[in-house]
Every structure is written in structure tokens, then in C-alpha cells.
Specification:
11 strands, globular
């Protein structure tokens, strides 16, 4: 994935049909790689913070991760006969996530889905997470969390979540969010351009 400037990212967000202005507080922007390598952390996340209406968001930190399901859910598992959930890209959902715990485990802090986020069901099992079929709108537990301590591939633990590959980078993200007193987070997913 190429390098993006803050201006490019923010201009791209402001051009979305779902954009109504930059929110006061944090926005987590995930850029989904065009390559979509199977079972690989090939996406990027950028956290921005806007301190007030009309103010440009400032860059806080970046991290590597994935917005796509691993092989277990995308190809092998039949948890949903319609296929694995793939969150829609090129959309922003305000206050979509709130502080909580992934799988309700107190040792696994995360930002958990609090609002409906549009998604698709990819059931063709072709090893690519695709935005195909009808668009759905539900709360499906698409959380923002970290990978296992020694994880280098996605495999059997990611379904529709946004997963940071590096635990220390995720901890830094959570520490910042908690230190600023942000219980809610706006999520934006963009396709690489």
C-alpha cells in the first residue's frame, strides 16, 4: 500500500456521501488494501482527533491491521449460510463504536460495535473478502481489537472485526483513547485509491 498524506485521507473522507462533517472527538480511518492478500494484515488504520466544529482533524497515530475476515470464516466455516460479513468501504458511521470488551472478556479491551454499520455477505469462498450481494444493516459484533500476541496471519479468529496486528500499537491506541476520555469512536473505512 502506498503512503497517504493526511490531506489525501481527509479529502477522501469529506467526499463520501455519508459525510456530514468531521465529528468532535476521535475518528478511526481504515484503508482497505486493493491487494486483499489472503490471511495477511495488509490494511492500515489512522486515528485522527477533531477538537471542535470547523477544525481540521489532527493525526494521532497509525497502525497495521486488517478489515477482512481470515480463512476460517471466509472459506471454511458455515456460521452464516449467506457467507462471511464484509464491512462496506467508502463509508463513515458517526459514533459507531463504544468502549467495551471483545467477546465480553475483561482482559480484552476494545471498541465494540454500538451502531449499525453497512456490510455484505460474501459466500463464494474464493479467498477474497468482497463487497457482493445485497447490503445489510445490523449490529453484528464487528469490533476494533488486537490480534494475538504472536499472530502473523489472520487464519481462524477474525470474522468482521477490524484487527490491529501489533499488540503494543493497539495498547497505545487504547491508552490514548482512555486518557482523553473518549467512550465513543467514529469509524470510516476507505478503499485504497
Amino acid at each position: 500500500m502506498r503512503t497517504f498524506t493526511d490531506k489525501e485521507v481527509l479529502d477522501r473522507i469529506s467526499g463520501l456521501s455519508t459525510f456530514t462533517g468531521f465529528p468532535h472527538g476521535p475518528i478511526d480511518v481504515w484503508i482497505r488494501s486493493q491487494a486483499d492478500k489472503f490471511d495477511v494484515f495488509d490494511d492500515k488504520a489512522f486515528t485522527y482527533e477533531c477538537l471542535g466544529p470547523g477544525m481540521a482533524p489532527k493525526f494521532i497515530m497509525g497502525r497495521e491491521g486488517t478489515t477482512n475476515a481470515g480463512s476460517y470464516y471466509l472459506v471454511d466455516h458455515l456460521a452464516n449460510p449467506l457467507g462471511c460479513a464484509v464491512l462496506k468501504s467508502d463509508v463513515i458511521v458517526y459514533d459507531s463504536h463504544k468502549f467495551g470488551y471483545h467477546h465480553q472478556k475483561k482482559n480484552n479491551p476494545a471498541y465494540v460495535q454500538a451502531k449499525s454499520f453497512p456490510y455484505f455477505r460474501d459466500g463464494n469462498r474464493n479467498r477474497r473478502a468482497e463487497e457482493i450481494g445485497p447490503e445489510h444493516h445490523d449490529i453484528i459484533g464487528a469490533n476494533i481489537h488486537h490480534a494475538g500476541v504472536n499472530s502473523t496471519v489472520i487464519n481462524n479468529w477474525s470474522a468482521a472485526c477490524l484487527v490491529t496486528a501489533n499488540l503494543s500499537k493497539f495498547q497505545a491506541f487504547m491508552l490514548y483513547m482512555r486518557s482523553q476520555g473518549y467512550p465513543l469512536l467514529t469509524l470510516c473505512i476507505l478503499k485504497e485509491w
